[in-house]
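Q: Sequence in, structure out?
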Amino acid sequence: MKTKELKALSKARELVIGSGVILGNSLSARHVTILRNIGFLHEITRGWYIFCDEIHKEQYWQNNMLTFLKNYLEGRFDTNYCLGPMESLILHTRSNQSLQGKIHIYTGSKSTALVDLAFGNCQLVIYNSNQYKNAVLSQGLYCLPPEHVINHLATKDKLRNYEKEVRVLLSDKKIYKDIKAFHRENSLPSASQRLGSYLINKPTRSGGSPARQLEILWNEYLPLLDTYFNSKEIPFAKKGSTKIKNTAVIIENDLLNNLALEKRDCDISSKENTKLEQLYMQLKKEVLSNSPRIEFNLKSWKNPFANSLRQTPVRTCGDYIPTDPAEIKNCLDRYVLLMSESHKSHPYTIAVLAHFGISYIEPWASGNGLMARIFLNYFLASHSYSLLTIPSHSSNIYINSLTRSLINGDILTFAEFINSLRFNDKPYTNNWDE
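A: Exactly. Output:
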């Protein structure tokens, strides 16, 4: 490669926004010509480019589309714009649907404008509308507030196309209250009432036995979690007997934190904790095995704090009421079946759902949280991922995020908490106020 081409590449790398967007007027016309000639600069629209090689340009566009929109719209309209209702819904819910086709933008502009984009068959459709004055930020872009989005989705056809996103939006307790208040205060016309229970009543997941309801929730959460974790580029651990760095230290640290989370005596040598230590030795054996078992045999894992299934109703995580004792066995059977059917999903997805399922059923009188955390790590280890420890000082965040998944249908907050544990290297502490 010639010197002038190397200089152009070097200059472009200095000016990249995000991981691949370049504003053309930040480069000299000469550098733009050189980079386009060697296939490293691809025009999005006039004056804006994707900086990458020819092979990966579509991938870079998908990864940098929101970065482009943010910078393009702010450069043209400052903060006096917002995305249309469908686009706002996708950003609010972090949906796995991508922005494509006609992307609607509301601004104070006096006329409608069309801006063709070179990727994804996209076109920006810019309208004159005062609705941009109601905008809120979501993922760095100005969007319609959730209550306005729901009002725009009042027709059955739109609801059918975006039902999953609407459910995710309404699963947030605060957003649900805001939407309900908005429709009450504005006395909206009958079109809004077509959303029925979606607007007036909090959506319920009825339909059969508790085992069936668990399956419905599971199938709702699985694609959301896959989309979330597939975007995180989580590294694998090394294979073989050393595949988990400092396994013994990590396991002892996890054991201590688990005892603290269960509010039990943290003396590992105590008689009460002998069975717990054996459970961890079983986990350690799975972790260090060259060929860890992917299938899940619930009966091979013994809860050290309970000898049998729960016999009485309980209330956990605030107001959450888990499975009725008479239905626990059926729910556990469905849980094991769902685990085996989810084997093609992202390992972190399986691990989070393994934890969620135990918390949803609450099968034992004691030790449910402990077993849920053990199963979470078992599935990570079985797919060559490092173990995670939930530190005792994060108990409030942990319980709150889990509660949102059980009561409000917000699994992504719990997923974000689990993902954050990858960056936590604090040792065990019994300081609950930290």
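Residues 360 and 426 are 29 Å apart (CA to CA).
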